[in-house]
Design goal:
Elements: E1 2-3, H1 11-26, E2 32-36, H2 39-48, H3 50-53, E3 58-62, H4 67-70, H5 73-80, E4 89-92, H6 94-98, H7 106-111, E5 115-118, H8 122-131, E6 137-143, H9 148-160, E7 166-172, H10 175-185, E8 192-195, H11 197-203, H12 210-215, E9 219-221, H13 226-240, E10 248-250, H14 262-271, E11 272-279, E12 283-292, H15 301-304, H16 320-324, H17 348-351, H18 356-363
Parallel strand pairs: 1-10, 2-3, 2-8, 4-5, 4-6, 6-7, 8-9, 9-10
Antiparallel strand pairs: 11-12
Helix pairs in contact: 1-13, 2-18, 8-9, 9-14
Length: 372
């Protein structure tokens, strides 16, 4: 695995990398197509203008890297079913509250009187359970390997304190099965993958070695500053154009180790076990979810408060699933900027701050649609 030698963050360095990337990418004729599997990368790329700066040489395609966006309508409906639990307190991160299910959203149910609270940490929900022992407190856990350790810590804290009214609905997801599914489906031509930076700090850069090893395309772990992204893209271009062997590159060595955060990984293994999980745009992916292990099953909200939730009908007009698969850009959705805006979101890709539609709306609303 190659590592980055990070240049100074000057405008000259940025211009040098942009020029070099364009020259090398254009040497092969058709534009190279890379997918970023991270909502923060999508936002950073849109905010910095890198997508337009590299247009014609490199196409940067947003993938299923927004955890709120990939949470399926059925999963949202299952969370909404907890509103029927008597005297319940529902807690979660802010973006999830506004994501629409098939009939409603947590924000709408809160307006109707359901006690739905935004927390900054699942430990806040544990404290609520301790302060109100007569009320069930459910934390709705959404996120990849980055946020799952915090949920595991909350469960461990509730267990240590002997709380019997704290529960977790785990909609946490693992990235590797999703990447394998996406690349295995072959619906979108990709010349390389920009791996998720935050997830990499937990699972390690080496966790993505299967991408070049099994799928034959280069992979790069990158940071979130424009120059860090360009360094990662420079490697992907060189590998895709045959200027260096196809492999894995870690351009975020100041935070990402090859082996990852072993303490966090041990906590995840102790608390969660793989389970099948539905992904918006990708369907049910085996062993991609994080269910609670038997030792912690008493904290499982789904087991404590079962509900029969039917599969919802497809959301008419919304192309969020296609955006998450990289099969079209947000601008190509007929609802984008019209029936679907950040103030009136119709789909989750416009709700989340990491969603591709929200990023495109904020930073490149008037860009012309491009074929992906």
């Amino acid at each position: 695995m190659a590592n980055a030698l990070m240049p100074a963050g000057s405008s000259e360095a940025l211009q040098t990398y942009v020029k070099r990337i364009r020259q090398r990418a254009e040497s092969g004729g058709r534009p190279l197509r890379f997918m970023e599997f991270c909502g923060t990368h999508t936002t950073a790329i849109s905010r910095s203008g890198l997508r337009s700066v590299l247009e014609g040489a490199v196409e940067l395609v947003a993938g299923p890297g927004c955890p709120v966006c990939v949470t399926s309508d059925w999963e949202i409906d299952r969370m909404l079913a907890y509103c029927d639990v008597p005297n319940v307190i529902l807690t979660s991160y802010g973006d999830l509250i506004r994501v629409p299910g098939s009939q409603s959203s947590l924000a709408e149910r809160r307006a109707e009187g359901i006690d739905v609270r935004v927390v900054y940490s699942p430990l806040d929900a544990v404290n609520m359970a301790a302060q109100e022992p007569d009320r069930p407190v459910i934390f709705l856990g959404v996120g990849f390997e980055t946020t799952a350790p915090a949920t595991a810590l909350a469960i461990a804290d509730a267990n240590r304190r002997g709380l019997t009214n704290f529960y977790v609905h785990s909609a946490h997801k693992a990235t590797e099965p999703a990447i394998r599914t996406l690349l295995g489906q072959g619906g979108v031509r990709l010349d390389g993958l920009l791996c998720p930076g935050h997830v990499s700090t937990v699972i390690g850069a080496d966790a993505f070695a299967f991408i070049p090893g099994e799928f034959g395309i280069p992979a790069a772990v990158g940071g979130f500053e424009p120059l860090e992204i360009l360094v990662a893209l420079d490697y992907l271009v060189e590998a895709a154009r045959g200027m260096r062997p196809v492999g894995l590159f870690n351009g975020y060595t100041r935070w990402v180790r090859p082996e990852g955060n072993q303490q966090a990984l041990a906590l995840l293994r102790e608390t969660f076990e793989p389970c099948d999980s539905p992904w918006r745009g990708l369907g049910v992916i085996p062993a991609s979810g994080m269910g609670l292990r038997p030792a912690y099953r008493r904290f499982d909200a789904a087991a404590a408060f079962p509900a029969d939730v039917p599969q919802p009908k497809p959301r008419r007009g919304c192309r969020c699933g296609d955006v998450l698969r990289g099969q079209l850009t947000p601008h190509q959705c007929p609802l984008f900027g019209k029936a679907c805006t950040p103030s009136r979101p119709y789909g989750p890709c416009m709700v989340s701050s990491e969603g591709a539609c929200a990023a495109f709306y904020r930073y490149s609303r008037d860009a012309a649609p491009t074929e992906v």
